[in-house]
Structure formats: C-alpha cells, structure tokens
Write a structure and sequence with these properties.
The structure is a homotetramer. Chain A is an alpha/beta fold. Chain A has 14 helices and 18 strands. In chain A, the strands form 4 sheets. Chain A has a 7-stranded mixed sheet. In chain A, strands 1-2-3-16 form a 4-stranded mixed sheet. Chain A has a 4-stranded antiparallel sheet with strand order 14-15-18-17, covered by helices on one side. Chains C and D meet through helix 1, helix 2, strand 1, helix 4 and strand 4 of C and helix 1, helix 2, strand 1, helix 4 and strand 4 of D. Strand 1 of chain C pairs parallel with strand 4 of chain D. Chains A, B, C, D: Keywords: Aminotransferase, Pyridoxal phosphate, Transferase.
C-alpha cells in the first residue's frame, strides 16, 4: 500500500483557485491536493496519491464513494433519459423513493411522517422546519443549543452556535435562544432542569418557544453525544411547554450512529426531523424535512425551491435504502464496528489522558488543544489519511469513516492516527510540558 | 403527433403522494401526471402522454432535458468513478469548470470575478451575496424591489416581495426595504428618481443600504423587464450611496435573455452576481455567487455548506459552457428566436387588448386575470403543453421554452397557447363581458 | 426695552456643565446663557438679559411660561399637600382632569376616546400607541413617514426618520416602513396613491400594517403641513387595509395649529392620538394616549410606568383646559394670529425667494440652507430672540411663539427676525451670490 | 388612630374612570379609593380614610409625601417664576442640582460620572443606557437577568423578564439574552460561573455583549438581592468580555438599600448607572443616566426629549440631596431601621416557614403563593395599610415604607401586616392544609 502522495511542487495550474475561487474555501487549504476519482473508502489525487477517507464528506458518504450498486442505478437512469429535474412534479423516481422510504424506514419503525422535499441542502431543511414550527405554534422563538450547528442561511444560522459563522451574518441573529447542551456545565448540572425552570417561570425573560431544535450528537460542535435520558427530558419539556421538538439528524442520521435515525430506541418521537448529507447515498444534494401529519400545514408552494426535485438523488437514495436498510444486518454491523472504534479510541486516548467523544461510528478524541489536533490531522494527511477536527476550538479529532469500511482498513487508518498522535506528543508537546 | 395523454382515472398508486408527501407541493397539483423520462423539449408521463415543455423547470433547463452531450459527459464521469462529492476540495472537475468559466465567460467579456461555490440552491447564493454585502459595507439594510423573488430561506425571503411566501416566515422579515421596480407606478414616474431622493435625504427614514438587489427581468414577479436606462441609474445610485449592486441572475441568466448574463451590453457591471438554475445545464443543483475581487472578504469557511462541491454539476456545466458559449452562435440564435417569440405573442396579445411582458426567451402575456390565465394554462396542459403563470395575481402566462427549441416546435406550442386563449375568451370570459 | 444681555465673559461657574453634564446636551450650545426665571413670553438669564421666546419649549409652552392662573392652581395644590405622585391610583386631581377633558374637549367635539396615562413623555405615548395597534391587529409593521419625528426610545425611534437620531439606536430599527409624506416627491405626485398601490399589491413586499402613524404638521421635520385631502386619503387607506390610524399630535396639538386637535374639521377621526408637550399647560411632564373605546385592549398593567400619575400636571392641565378651551374665543384668536404670522412671514420670504411652511401658529421660512438659517437664529439670539431651526438640514427657521403672545410683541419678534435675515442676506450670502 | 376608611358605596362619580380611563390601570383596582392629599407616611382618601403607605410609589417617595423642606423649596421656586420647562438649556436650578450632586454624592464617594438628563422616566434612562453601550462597544446584544424589570418602551422592555409585560410589545423582543440571576438555580449553582463559561465559549451561541444590565435588588422581580460576591463577579465578567456594566438603580438607589447607590462598598464601580423614582425626592418625574467620562460619546442631541429639563424636579432633588445626604446620619439611620425591619419580618416569616427577601429598607416575605399574598395585602388595605406584592407570581409581600418613617409607625404597619398574615393562615389556607 503506497498511500504517500508524490511530493508537491509549485504546480502552475493550481493558480486557477487563487485567481478565481473565493477565499471562503476551507478544506482545500488543509488538504492541498487535487482529487480526481474515488471509490469506496479511497480517494485519489491527480499526482497518484491515494487517501483513506476518514471524513466521508462530513458524513455525506456513509456508504463510501461511488458505491457500485448506487452508481449503476444512476448510470441506468441517466442512460434511459430519466427525468433529471422536475421541480416538484410527480416522477417515477420520486414515487419509488417515497414508497421505499415508507416501506423500508417508516413502517418497520412504526413512524408516521410526511416528507417535504425542500431545497437540497441541510440548511434549507432546517429553515423549512423552523418556519413550519413557527407557523404551527404561532410563536417566534426557537431554542437551540450551545455548540449546535444547523446551517448558514439566516434562519438556520441564528440557530448555530459558532461565533465565527454567526459573525458572517452581518445582521443581528434573533428569535433564537441558545441553551446549554447536555453536560455543558459538567456532569453535576442537569441542563434540562435549568431549561425547564426557566420555561416554567413567567418572569425568566425566555419567551415561550415555537420549537426546540437539537442534534443527538453534535457533529460540528465537538461530537458531544446527549444521553437518552436528557433527550427524553427535552422531548417532555417541549411537549409540556407547547413547543415542537425538531431533531436535526443531518449528520447523525442515515446510520452514522447505528440506526437510520439517531434517536431510535430512545423512547421519544420528534415532531419534525431534518435529513440531508448521506440521504442520497452517493453524495448528491438531497434534503428532507419530515413532520407528523398533523403539522403538515404549509400551503401549496409556501416554501419552495428550484431544486427540490433532484431525481438523480431520488434514484441513488432509493437504491441505498433498499440495499442497506431492508433488513437489520447493516445496522448490526455498524454498531459492532462502532464498538470496535470506541475501544480503539479509548485505548489511544487513555494513554495521554484525553477523553473520547461521540456515539456509533461518529467518534473522536478530545485532545484539549486545537493546535495539537491540527498538527495530528495534518500529519495524518501527509501519511495518506483524510481526517478532520471538530469543536469550538477544533480540539476534537473526528473519525467519520464510511460505515462500509471493513475492520482491517479501519484498523489501518487508526494505526496512522495513533502513530501521529504519539509523534506529536513525543515532540513539541511533550517537550513543552517539561 | 399525439400529445394528448391517456384520460386519467383514479389510479390507486398515486395515493403515495397523499399519504407521504407534504401538502406544500404545488406544480404537481396543476399538472397531475407522473413523469418518467424526458429528452430535449419533451417530457413523457407514465401513461404514454408526451408534453412539450414551455416551463423548463422555471428556466433551469435552458438547454433542454438530458442534452446528449451533457448526458454523455456525465455518464463518462460517473463510470470512471469521478468524485461525486468533495466538500470544497480541489477536484479535476472543479478545476475544469473554473478554467472554462474563466476562458469562455469572463475573459471574452472583460469581467473579473471571484467564484464562490455556495450551497447548490439559488436561495443560498442570495444569502451569501447579502451576507457579503453586509460584511463589506458594515451596513445592515438591503434594498429589494416590488415583485422581486429571491428565495425561501430567511435572509432571501426577506428580500422577496410575495406576501404568501413572506407569511411563511413566522417571524417578521427585517433589514430589507422594498422599493418600486421600474415602471411600478406607470410610465410617468421614474422610480429610480424616487429612490435616489430618499437615499439622499438624511431624514427619509431609509437607512443607508448595504446593497441594492435587483433582477433585470422579474421571473416570478410577472416578467417585468427593467429598461437598461433604469438599471444604469440603479447602478449609479448604488455606487453614489456606498451600496453594492447585486444582480440576481438566477432566472434571467445563462442565456435566457440572450447573453450569458442578463445585463450584458447595458453599460454597468454588478458588484455581485448570483447564478443557479441553468448553470449546470442539465438541471443538477448548482449555484454560484460571483463578486469583484476586492469584495472577496469572507474568512475561510465563514459561509459553508455540505453540497458546495457538486462535482456532477461541475461536469455538465463545463460541457454546457464549452458547447453553447465558446462562440456567439448560440446567443445570436436565442436572440433571433426571442424576437420571433415576441412577434407572435404581441400578435396574440393585441387581439384581446392584452400586453406582452419580458425580454429574450423570457416572455409572456399579461391577461390581467389570474383566473383567466389559470384556465388557459390548464387547457394547454390537457392539450400537451406544460406552461405556467407568473405575477402577483398569477395573471401573466409565461413562456419559458428551452432555448434550444427549434422554430417549428416553438410554433407548435404557441399554436396550442393561442387556441386555448381564444377558446377561453370565446366562452366564459367573452360571455361574462357581454 | 433692553433685551440685549450683558456681554459674556469667562464665567468660571459654567465649568460645571463641562465637568458633569453629558455632551449630548444641545440647545445649551447654541444658546449659551443660564436662565433663571420666566413669565409669559419672556425668559431671563442670570446676567440680566431678557429674551423673547419664539421656541416655547418646542411647543410645550403654548400658554407661555408660568401662566398666573396655572401657577396659582399649582401653588394652592402643593400648599394643601395635594398628592404629588400616586402611581395610577385615583386622585382628586386625576378625577378633575378626566372630567374636564371629557366636558371641555371630547363632548363638544363629539369624540369618544379612552385616556391612557402613559409615562409622562411623548416617546412613551407613541410606544404605547404602536404597542396597542400591534396588539389589536396582530400585525407587526407600522407605516411612518419621511421626516417624521416620534421620539427616542427604541419603538418610537424606529418610526423617526432622522438618520442621526436613528444611528444612536445601535441596533437595526425594524418593523417600520417609512413612506413619503404629502408633497415629498413634489406637487405632481400624490404619495397617498403610491402607498395605496403598494398596500393593495400582494407582491409589493410591504407587509400589511398594524398602523399608519402620522403628524398633520411635521414639527421637527421642517414644518411640512399635510393637506386635509391627503390626510383623509391616509385615513381611508388605513381603514381599507385594516390598519389603525395614529395621529401623533404631540407638537401640533393643544392649540398650536388652531384647534385643540390638529385634525379638527378635516373630516376624519383617528383611531389613536398621542399627546404631550403643552398638555400640562405649564411645561410639566405629561403625556396621553387616546384611543377609541373598542381598542381599549391592554390588560391591567400591561403597559405601566412609575410617573404615569403626575398629579401636578393634572392640576395645571385642568386649569389650562378650563381657562383656554371652555369656549371658542382662544381658538379664534389663535387662528387670527396665525394668519397674521403667515402674512408677515410670506412677505419676508417673498423678498428672498424663500418659501413659507406650516399651519396656524406653527410656521416658518425655508431658507434652503442650514448654514444660513443657523446664522440668522444665532444673530436673533444675540438680539434677544430665542428661535430655532427645523428640517432635515436645519434649513427652516421655525416660529413657535407662545399662543398667548399679543400681536405687538409678536411683531417685535418678527422685526428682529426680519432684520437678521436681511443682514445675513446682505453680507456673506449676498456677496457669495455675486 | 382611625385608619379605617368609611365604608364604600356605589358612589356615582367614580364612573368617570370606567368611562374615560383605559382599562390598563392597575393599582386603582386593588386600592379602590380616591386619594386627595398626603403628607409624610400618610395618604388620605376622599372619604376621610387615612392610609399608612408601605408602597411609597414603588420606592419613588423614599422621603415621604410632600416633605416640608422639599415642598417649601418648590413653592418658593414657583412663586418666584423660576423656569419650569427649559428643554436642556442651562438654568439656575440645573446648575444647583449639578453642583450639589457633585459635592454631596460624587466627590465624597470618589466617583467620576457624567450626568445625562434623559426624558424623566426610568425607561428612558434605561433606553439611553443601552443605546450608549451599543454605540460605545459597536455590539448589539445586551445581557439582562431573569426576573429583571427595566421598563415598558421597546428597548427597555426587551430587557424585562415578565412575560405579560413582554407580550404587550406586539413584536419579537430581540438583541437581549436573559441569564439566570444570583441564586436562580438554588444556592448550589453559581450563575456567574455559568455566564462566564458561555461568554468564554466561541460556540455557545451567546454573542459578545454590549452590556450587562443588572439590578442589585430586583424590586419588581421578587426582592431578590444579589450577593456582593456575585455582583463583583458580574462586574469582572463584563470587563473581561468587553461589555459595559450597567446598574439599574432606579428602585434600589436613593437610599432604599442604605447607601445613595445600592452598590456602595461592594468593591466595583459600574460603567453606567440609571436612576429615577426617588431622585426628585418628591415624586416628580426625573431620571438620570450616569456614565464614566470616557463613555460620554453621544453626539449633541443624539438622544433627546422634550421634558429632559424638569426644573421643578431639579429644585426638589437639590433640596433632598442637601438635607438627607450631606452627612452620613440618614444613611446610618436607614440601615439601622432596615435591620429592625429584617428582624421583624424574619420573625413573622419563620412562624409560617416563609422566607424573607431583600436588603435595607427594601424587604419582603415570600409566601410562595400569589393568592395568599394577594389576600393579605387586600386585607391590609382594608385595615388602612397600603402594601403590594412582587415576584413572578406576585407571591412576595413587599415592604417599601418611606425611609423617613419613625420606628413606632413602622411597627404599627408591621403589626397590621402580621395580623393579616395570621388571619389568612388561620382561615382558608390553614383549613386547606388540613
């Protein structure tokens, strides 16, 4: 295995990015290669380098790159002149997706949701969700949580915690209160109690909320995983105070934490769910907002969008649902592999007094230092492993391998990670500690 | 030619939409068929019906459905395991797109813009544009126009004029002032003068704007086409008052009005441009925000989004740019065909005292009545022609045929339209007028 | 008559203002004297200077300073240990005021209003008015006008046009649209038509308003006087679109324009009226919000304030209502004197090609230049006449003499004004014009 | 002593309130008498009843009603035709007030503040304070606290916690975050820590604040008294995070808690202080915003108001400062009497398992039930004692006697209170508890 890319030089054709692409680009800075093709867990750059992908498009490629079954379904569809773009018209591809989602996902779980095809980005699904909650309740305030991440358009951005992202708004972000997530004040403080107290107090200044918007695991916020007990409390609090419970399952859903939904078997049912990222299965833009039928209260076209009928995504999503979710095998395997990952990360972390974070195949190591974590991930990239950080200070090294990775390859990637952590700790950081 | 679809009956499998798709769906209501495949200007339903498409995904399919060259480029790319999803990493497909956009679009027009790959929806491109304008100017208020349409997420929705769409927000939409568009108060009143007077008056209550956001032709707002003189005035006013000029070219761009940009040869250069819809050429989700290099001021990742690197769209967009825009032939042909369309619509309109609206291949007839326009478009659909309405009261019948349509087929569609208008006017409306 | 004050020197005790009073002070800068006592139309400074008051506390002293009847009523009340402060408890003084207001003001005019004792400032009365309109209609947007002035607290400030005042907010001012006032676009354009068109258009982007808030004469905005026809149109438009009509009569009411209310005999009845300034008759803080009984919908205490029961003001207000408004004599006299003022100002203005502005005893000369107007008013002050400017550029010299001034003394003041205008025009401005 | 008022009957002249006063009136409902005169600690109704005042205009009458010295100073001033209203012109009365405030209050305490004469209501002082903090810092968000009360105009109302008051706004109240006050989550949780953690976390979603606005004792919010330690922490947190510390001393200042300012001897110095209520000493409308000289950054007139120069209030305020604050005797006496009050209330409360609240002469008993507290205060009123409740559920009986009350009379009032509590507990509540 030669994952090491060729040494980079001053390759002139890269100047096109400097010349024409906005400086807002980010991942391309820490991974300064140009990629051409990818299959499964591997990405290939234009200089012959091969990379093991522990980022998976931030959980957008849970089934790996260009999965053969999905790819073939899409090739067949395009070759047959299947509808690519159809606004929100009924199409064969949409029908197949709806049926499959009903048969494979909803019915077996005893869930009853309506599907809203929003514009095909997560932020759009979140915007639709909070608009709907405000419309249904007649209230304006939404409760979101510390370290939450929900998107970049103005409504979703107001729900996002990160100050740098928020600062980009250019206007004050309002109608949202950010409350402490599970464990935010340490294990002694039950933040659900704090929230309940304030919502129950007519003089707290916290207005009655339209919705409580929560991630079960905070992907961007540092892989904080809420406990089932806390989530149930939040669900109860929402109900008690007349608010809708919105679970943003964009990153944690589609199997990343084990089940198709991240909240399965936890004993509560959200009023609204947002999905995107791995929904299409192949990385194609696709987003959904699900809600209980009684909240299906938008007028026709009240929320619309040109690309809300991305039929290519319907095709690959249908293939993915059928292949991976028709029975429980995939889910069992992901959970088993998640435990494996957990065991390995815990061992690494313990060596340096670090903590692990996360749930299922969405786990990481909190190094406590953004500088250290950045040093490690940069060294990993040089060694052929694509891996990123997360958290308020980028201090958490985040393992988001494709769920379909085999155990051996997962081990290879973790070996690279372990080695780079050890090297980083041995050199500067260890020295600094003396 | 038998465009007439099979008579519809109570086909049970349609219940999936009732059962599972949100009531927010809209086009599917006025065009109650299920579509399977499409090529060029034709769409096919599941019952054997064939439809001539005068809607083109609201100008998303300017080159028709599944154009053979674009389709082949995409098939080849997928077959070779080309990167589908790459966050904002450099990829071969992105490089090719950037180079092509520079060579084919920017350089020949003497334009210098940076490209920001926003989330692949128009509303996201608009959100990025107004965030940037607010950041650059340090101001908060944006001026948009009556009947403008810019998207459904909270920041873009605040810029949208339509009351029904705005009502969906559930919170007050702020930081935007809606000013009268060109001709809004009739031909006697120069609305640019009105705007200039208020911006020049320190006691007008109109705060200094971060941006003026304008469509050159209002696609959803009734096909109102601003005059070049008015647009130049608006550009001058923006400059004089320290605001950035944003042209929302999502619907009017990509050749719809003749040139690649809708403002070409008008004598002004926008500070920011938003693009989406036909950008990918094949209906795939893709959006761009362009800005002058001096305004490239976002920090890395300050505005991001999972699907900002839709490489399938890069591939088809590149193929479309190369095929249609490498020389001026396509543009000349579109303009010629636009004149043809204009002549025909003017003749039809004149017969009933109606007015025409629009520019290039983005034209329509203002019937003055949403009920009448709806009757006509429904009858057209029954006759195998997909066509929609626009405007504050849905009173404008809107012709958005693919730009690649041949003259004969355009004529066939217009024949259908003309006949249905005549029938509608002969029956109830004529009767009512007696 | 020796109105000329003693020449000022470096009097050390003035340093207390530099040392302790905020730089936000304003009038004290253009009138750098210290005043001790005042009676009727005269103010006296600490250096023996006497000043004729053509400012009247910006129309707060319509009955002059320390009117003997009001003063005696207040002295008697205080001497008898009358309640000074009673929150909103019933008091003898409040009862007397309510009865008098009913008998002297409401009943003779056939008006039926409820009185709300807000905090005793105009801005508080405006805040209560717009809160109530929003509560009653369930809408959020308020329409105010260019050059309108309604106060400095956040809700009222959002309705104020002046950019320098607005800039002090430190947050975006929202939920208000500023529309052009009568005559704003010149005599050819009926701005009521423009407003009606936009409110009638569901795609204009102008949300349905809770209220239209208007001054009949814009005191701070340059003495623009709306025509009765335009005001009736605005009243009709408010009604047609489900908005409440709020007349802010804080400066123009209490006789300043002739009648007790500035809109009398114009053929419409506001839904809400705000009053303050001359209401107490002696310059004591007092404000009222009046509304039709059907809009009396605040819950007990929903809007409150410590000083909403300023009983001293009730006492002087009652005395003023009884003395000046029990019959029509005062009103007739004010109108006659207003005509006198108009004739004189018109003559002066005509000489220099200036225009006059205003109505009743609220009139001025638009010099077209803030610098010129400031030169004139400064020279007037040196000559013993207190007079100020108004308008977006402070270009209007504003005559707000006490309504009780006798014709001769009014003439004395206008002589001073005329002379200073002539001097200013003869010297620099005339020279500059050569 | 016959405090018992005459039995009330259906006195017809009260109908004027029903007919003409807005239903927003509140105190007049629970104290259905009409008052005529008052002196010291006593109020007299129109039916011969005499009431001991334990409300003091919500701490507006700290020196009692119509204090002879203040009353005489005002009578002399009015009799001599002293300026009543002078906008913000320099006057003898203002100069005397400024000098006295400097000599008696600032210099002895080593404090250096500029005084801004805002409109004469507490809410106006708060609006000016938060406008200034936003202007100085360039930030928009203000941190206020649970159960805080700061006024009814839109900017101050956003800082107020009470849901019923907030609901009156009719628009969402934004740019303010409400954080838990000292002790809000019980004695175990240090809410200053919670605040510091969130402000220190760039992903908490809590934007960097312009100001932290705090009452040292929450008068309307239930007499919660913050500890000096907590207040010092808040002051440190404000400083560390670049926010200005605003102490709203409108109710707790002017001697109510012992010192002239409520934060004296606590080891921190606010950046901005708001004052009103007892400032004039006689219940006349008067408010001040104080700030450190370096924050004196408003432009001339940037915040103004017609009644910002209430000279009558300057006169009585000057007399009050000289008489009560020239030496420490008054302060010593108030503290002693506060201890007396505390001892007595503690004894009463202990008997029923209630808790006491507050500090200095601003104390009360938390009965835990708004119904019980209301029953007691109503019974007190019938017995000739004016006393009110406070807190989110009106559950705290609040003793706000004039500070000048003699010990014996204080005892008389407390006897009434004690008896009514015992009666209430003996009857229904005790019965209910069986």
């Amino acid at each position: 295995m030669t994952m090491k890319p060729k040494p980079s030089g001053a390759i002139p054709d890269r100047m096109i990015y400097e010349r024409r692409e906005s400086g807002v680009r980010s991942y391309a800075r820490s991974m300064p290669r140009q990629f051409g093709k990818a299959e499964g867990v591997w990405m290939h750059d234009s200089e012959g380098g091969r990379y093991l992908d522990f980022l998976s498009g931030c959980s957008t490629l849970n089934y790996g790159h260009n999965h053969p079954l999905l790819k073939q379904a899409l090739l067949d569809y395009i070759a047959a002149d299947g509808i690519a773009h159809g606004l929100d018209l009924h199409t064969d591809a949409k029908e197949a997706f709806l049926r499959t989602f009903e048969d494979v996902i909803l019915t077996p779980r005893g869930l009853d949701y309506r599907l809203m095809f929003t514009g095909p980005t997560g932020t759009n699904a979140v915007e639709a969700a909070i608009k709907l909650a405000r419309k249904v309740t007649g209230r304006e305030m939404v409760i979101a949580f510390t370290n939450g991440f929900h998107g970049m358009t103005l409504g979703a951005l107001a729900c996002t915690g990160n100050a740098a992202k928020r600062g980009g708004a250019g206007v004050p972000l309002s109608h949202v209160a950010h409350e402490p997530y599970d464990g935010y004040y340490g294990p002694e403080v039950d933040t659900a109690d704090l929230l309940d107290q304030r919502l129950s107090d007519p003089s707290s200044g916290l207005d009655a909320p339209a919705a409580i918007l929560v991630e079960t695991v905070q992907g961007e916020g540092g892989l904080n995983a809420a406990s089932p007990e806390w989530l149930r409390r939040i669900a109860d609090i929402a109900k008690a105070h007349g608010a809708l419970l919105i679970v943003d399952d964009i990153q944690a859903g589609c199997g990343r934490t084990g089940g198709f939904f991240s909240f399965e078997e936890m004993g509560f049912t959200p009023d609204i769910i947002t999905m995107a990222k791995s929904l299409s299965g192949m990385g194609l833009p696709f987003a959904l907002t699900l809600f209980r039928p009684e909240f299906d209260q938008f007028s026709p076209g009240e929320h619309n969008g040109t690309f809300r009928g991305n039929n290519h995504a319907f095709v690959t999503a249908t293939a993915a649902l059928r292949h991976f979710w028709s029975d429980g095998a995939f889910q069992v395997d992901v959970r088993r592999r998640g435990d494996l990952l957990d065991a390995r990360l815990t061992r690494i972390a313990a060596r340096y007094g670090f903590e692990t974070r996360g749930r299922g195949m969405m786990r990481g190591i909190n190094t406590g230092s953004g500088e250290l974590a950045g040093t490690v991930t940069a060294a990993c990239f040089d060694a052929g492993l694509i891996i990123e950080t997360s958290g308020a200070h980028d201090e958490v090294i985040k393992v988001l391998a494709p769920l379909v990775i085999d155990d051996a390859t997962l081990g290879v990637g973790l070996d690279i990670l372990e080695t780079r952590i050890r090297e980083a700790m041995t050199s500067e950081y260890a020295v600094a500690a003396e």
